[in-house]
Amino acid sequence: MDWLKTLLLVVDVLAALIVIGLVLLQQGKGADMGASFGSGASGTLFGASGSANFLSRSTAIAATVFFAASLGLAVLAVHGQKSSSIMTQPAAATQPAPQAPAKPAGNPQVPN
Predict the structure, then answer these.
(1) pLDDT score of 71
(2) Whether the model pTM is above 0.70
(3) Closest-CA residue to 23 (of 63, 59, 53)
(4) Which of 14, 18, 32, 102 has the fewest CB atoms lying closer than 10 Å?
(5) Are 26 and 52 a contacting pair, CB within 8 Å?
(6) Mean pLDDT, to the nearest integer, of 2-24?
(7) Do 53 and 27 form a contact (C-beta atoms < 8 A)?
(8) Is the pLDDT of residue 89 over 70?
């Protein structure tokens, strides 16, 4: 069980780093405007719109792997916990609340 937690943690961290890298590689929506007016930047490795499709699909896959690994880590964390409910503890383990001191009778004298 411990090796599974380690494996999921490594996959989770790697997927997070891949998602960060892929998001940073993507262009903003305003960058396509310059390419449509013939700035010459549209002739990239993947073509004018091929990089957007490739990067967005890769980001979606990496994000899915990240969320699945995070969910697996959460399930393993909850599965390994012991129940610590007050209702499951024996009654002898609880202690009665301390009593407050008795109030003096009458009006107490206030020193001057």
Answers:
(1) 96
(2) no
(3) 59
(4) 102
(5) yes
(6) 94
(7) no
(8) no
The domain locations on the chain are: 1-26+49-80
Mapping DSSP onto H, E and C, the string for the chain reads: CHHHHHHHHHHHHHHHHHHHHHHHHCCCCCHHHHHHCCCCCCCCCCCCCHHHHHHHHHHHHHHHHHHHHHHHHHHHHHHHCCCCCHHHCCHHHCCCCCCCCCCCCCCCCCCC
Q: What is the torsion angle, in degrees rounded to the nearest 10, for the CA atoms of residue 47, residue 49, residue 54 and residue 55?
A: 110
Amino acid at 43: G
Higher pLDDT: 32 or 23? It is 23
Query: Under 8 Å CB-to-CB from 45, ≥6 apart: which residues?
Result: 51
Q: Which has the higher per-residue pLDDT, 78 or 10?
A: 10
Instruction: Give the type of residue at 109.
Output: Q
